[in-house]
Amino acid sequence: MSLAALATAETDARLIERVAGGDPDAFTELYRRFARPVLAMAVRQLGDAGRAEEAAQETFAAVWRSARSFRPERGSGSAWLYAVARHAIIDRARQRREPVVEVPEEASAEAGPDERAELSWLTWRVHSALEQLPERERIVLELAYWSGLSQAEIASYLDVPLGTVKTRTRTGLARLATLLDEVRV
Amino acid sequence: MREPPDLRDLVGEDLPPDELERLRRADALLRAVPAPPAEVPNSLTQSVSRLAERPAATQSRRRLALAFALAAVLAAASFGLGRWTNGDDFETRFTVAMQPTENAHDAAAVIRVGERDEAGNWELELDVSGLPELPPGEYYDLWLAKDGEYAATCGIFSVAGGETTVQMNVSYRLADYDAWVITRRQADGDPPWLLQAPVA
User: Fold this and answer.
1) N- or C-end of chain A: fewer Cβ atoms within 10 A?
2) Based on the structure, what is the number of domains in chain A?
3) Class of domain B42-198
């Protein structure tokens, strides 16, 4: 996907509106974009893969059921999905009478509730943006930043030249910079 | 685990400063957040894909309301089990996607569990599709199992082709059971399981 194509990709809001009209293809595309961000948030907050999967399932059931409640003038599609996922995760935690607790992350070990909420939203934005990258670039970035592998090791693992790894890293970061233009850390 | 290399090592040394600065923002964001999950479980994808195989719940309720009403009145009068309505005020607390067994390959069902009322009753809403219409006087049964055995009925229902939505309520403690099961009600013996799901 080129940068121009990225800019013209159907927005999350438009997809939600199509889901509201019962369009299964739009629902599939929303799931493709947001399954991993939803699952990541659920795992962090519930600390259990099985319950996280249940919460993710309930999130998408709620999206399918409640897409008509989305009001684009009140915020982005991504923000609406984030809120739906948060509710589903909190409901899942309440079901067991356990508080929703962010599993500590290295970056937030000393963070208070506001900072944790901010990190949660930031993580959602970054993970969602990653899902919009071409798979070959997304995989290289994920390996580079979270696997502990060197670029030479990534090249060997993917069986591509080292130069290709650097090129994909560069183009992937450029796309992310475009997608997350207004986000700062 | 090793820290990711410096940005210049990742992208090379030959970038103009303004482009490098732009990439540095994305680099900082990736370093600031935890890793996403490696993959999405197939079981989640399959459960979610079934949701989109049927019309949205409220549309379905309107379309099938008449057919349900007749089946509901007949069934409730005969057995006094379950409660069928077509109201739109149901609020889902969590959802259970049922899996078809080899006895009902084409069937799909989702149970939406609503709020528990003051008396301790759970509101349930069942969307089911792919089950054949039964002769008059025969019903399907949604029930709770414990250790693989029939334990408690949640209600009986009929289907009218396409998707059927049925509302019920039960007063059981769900934690006392380990599976939701749909069978065809029969007079003798253990009926074969058609759909099943673990109790969360």
Assistant:
1) N
2) 2
3) mainly beta
Cβ contacts from A onto B, under 8 A: 146
Q: Does A36 touch chain B (CB under 8 A)?
A: yes
Q: Nearest 5°: phi and psi at B42?
A: -60, -35
A144:B5 CB<8 A: yes
Instruction: Determine contact: B32 vs chain A, CB below 8 A.
Output: yes
Residues of chain A contacting residue B116, judged by C-beta atoms under 8 Å apart? none
Domain CATH number, residue A8: 1.10.1740.10
- Domain span holding position A47: 3-132
Taking CA atoms, A70 is separated from A59, A67, A84, A123, in Å, by 14, 6, 10, 22
**Stretch 8-27 of chain B: residues touching chain A, C-beta under 8 Å:** 9-12, 15, 19, 22-23, 25-27
pLDDT in 10s for each residue of chain B, 200 residues: 678 888 988 888 888 888 999 999 999 999 999 999 888 888 888 888 877 765 444 434 433 333 333 333 333 333 333 333 334 466 777 888 888 888 888 888 888 888 877 777 788 888 888 898 888 777 888 988 888 888 888 888 888 777 788 888 887 888 888 899 999 887 666 788 999 988 86
- Assess whether A120 and A149 both reside in one domain: no
The residue with tokens 């233009």 is A181
ipTM of the complex: 0.82
Hey, where are the domains in chain B? 1-36, 42-198
CA-based nearest distance B118→chain A, Å: 16
Is residue A76 domain-shared with residue A153, that is, in the same domain? no
Is residue A27 helix, strand or coil?
helix
